[in-house]
Amino acid sequence: MEPTPPAAHFLANRSRIRIFGLSLDDGIRVFFGGNAVVSVIVLTLITYFLFREGAGFFGQNRQNLLVYRQAGLEYVDFMRRQQDDHTALTRYLSDLRLRQFRHYTQGAGRTVAEANAALAGFDDFAGRFGDTVEPLRTLVSDLTEQATAIKTKFDVMEDTKEQRRQLLAAGRKGDADKVVITPVDFAAELQPIRGVLPVYQAASAEFARQMEQVLATAPALPTPELQARLERFKQLSRDYLAGFPAVVTQLESWDYQKPVPAMESLTAFIFGREWLTASFWQDWYGVIPLLVGSLMVSCVALLLAVPLGVGAAVYVNQIATPAEQKFIKPCIEFISAIPSVVLGFFGIAVLGQAMRALSQAAWLSWVPGFPYSERLNILTAGCLLALIAVPTIFTLAEDALNNVPLAFKEASYALGATRLQTVIKIIVPASLSGIISAVLLGLGRVVGETMVVLLCAGNRIAIPDFTAGLAVITQPVHTMTGIIAQEMGEVVQGSIHYRALFVVGIALFFLSLGINYVAQGIVRRYRISIG
Known about the structure:
Elements: H1 6-13, E1 18-19, E2 22-23, H2 24-54, H3 57-70, H4 73-107, H5 112-118, H6 120-131, H7 134-169, H8 173-178, H9 186-194, H10 197-216, H11 224-242, H12 244-253, H13 262-270, E3 275-276, E4 284-285, H14 288-319, H15 322-335, H16 340-359, H17 378-402, H18 406-414, H19 419-430, H20 432-447, H21 451-456, H22 480-487, H23 496-530
Antiparallel strand pairs: 1-2, 3-4
Helix pairs in contact: 2-23, 3-13, 4-5, 4-6, 4-7, 4-11, 4-12, 7-9, 7-10, 10-11, 10-12, 14-17, 14-20, 15-17, 16-17, 17-20, 18-19, 20-23, 22-23
């Protein structure tokens, strides 16, 4: 009788091997099952912590919006938006002047002095247009001081209430009774602000009259294209003037006692276009500029990473020799071992500077957005995020290609197809679901990246100017992950700013969860179809 091999003997008797009273099979199940339980517990704790810290934001934001209304800041902002719209028109004129200057110096071959002399009439027109807003600007400045004073009184009252609460919590009732809380009489405080409505109406009428006079003296511009832009400016200005009665209506119907619905706190966050903190005027917590920044950087990264990652996977899996596979695969997978902060420093010191210098090259002037001055922008961050996403997309796409049944390839060759035809028309379509899931998981990887976007995206909290077309990718942005990393260490725990960052984290959590859910769904469907 032949002796039993050691491995077979072990497998046959492992159920009798006991560790702490458990068989080996039971121990293995407990170990891996325990790891799964720990993972579920950690995920539950993270989710609970996010929602616990972020849930209080909406109540605080509602109070923030209520004070904004009661202190008269909302009233003043009706006029301030009118002033800001005029500033936007002034910027349009500045751009129009720059275009004329380029026409004179580059197209007509004039010197800088001659170009400026030719623009003297336009400069006089633009200066008079800018001066028309002065009466409104003066009025808004005075009302800003009054509304800020009301808000300051309210903040002092809230601080006094908090001081009294802390004294009572510490058992110092005698000291707490000495704290005097002076309520703010908003009705009385707002009377001087609301009393300026007749003054505003007179200033607004004079403002409109002066603008009409200035527009009537607009000079003729040297080219039809520039003249068309000037006519567009006139139309925008007339549309702007047509909105003056609506501002008066808003001021007349404004009610500081109008309640702020609870839903408005949520919609102000979801659809808000401003993220403004530590402002002397009003703090705003709108996620739109951060979400747009994250998606823009991620899209640029995917546009670069998908062709590289999927192309490398197809080449290594279907075309490369064994020697090439042994060289290429470790090189690509090694990229994932590079710390993201190192890539961020590389972007600041090398890539951003190099790309900005490249954009100055005359032979690349046809590229949208070239030349540009901001070395840290969507494009720089997107290039580095693409480098991070390539290993993920490459590995998962290659797995998808490996899972295509060998019979598909053999049948294609049997029908006379070439290797390239087989790869393009048989292998890639058969693994398309797996490749798509690889791309989605790569998207989830770049959306959650922090250090690279914090260091290389430019950190400008504003929605990019999409009217620039493809040149929009040369603009700086801020991202959801970047704002959390940048501001979390500086906020006061429990403050509205603190909780707003946790709500951003919740939004990022659901975004990543959705991406991964879709990717896993595609993987399951892919496996079923292959099976």
